[in-house]
Amino acid sequence: MAASSADRLVLIASNRGPVSFTLGDDGRLSARRGGGGVVSGLSSVAERGNSLWVCAALSDADRAAARAAPDGRMSTDGTPGGPGVRMLDIPPAIFHRAYNAVANSTLWFVHHMLYDTPNRPDFGMTFAREWDSYRTYNQSFAEALAEDAGQAGPAPARAAVQDYHLTLVPRMLADLRPDVRIAHFSHTPWAPPDYYRMLPDDVGREVLDGILGADHAGFLCQRWADSFMDCCEAILGATVDRARQRVTHRGHVTGIGVHPLGVDAQELISRASEPDVQARVAALAEAAAGLKLIVRIDRTELSKNIVRGLVAYRELLATHPEWHGRVTHVAFAYPSRHDLPEYREYTARVQRLAREISDEFGTVDWDPLILAVDDDYARSLAAYRLADVLLVNPIRDGMNLVAKEGPILSERGCALVLSREAGAAAELAPDALMINPFDVSGTAQALHQALLMTDPERKSRSKSLARAAAALPPAQWFADQLAALDRGTG
Ligand code: G6P
Question: For a pocket test of ligand 1, which of 111, 188, 300 has the largest count of ligand atoms closer than 8 A to its C-beta?
Answer without folding.
Answer: 188
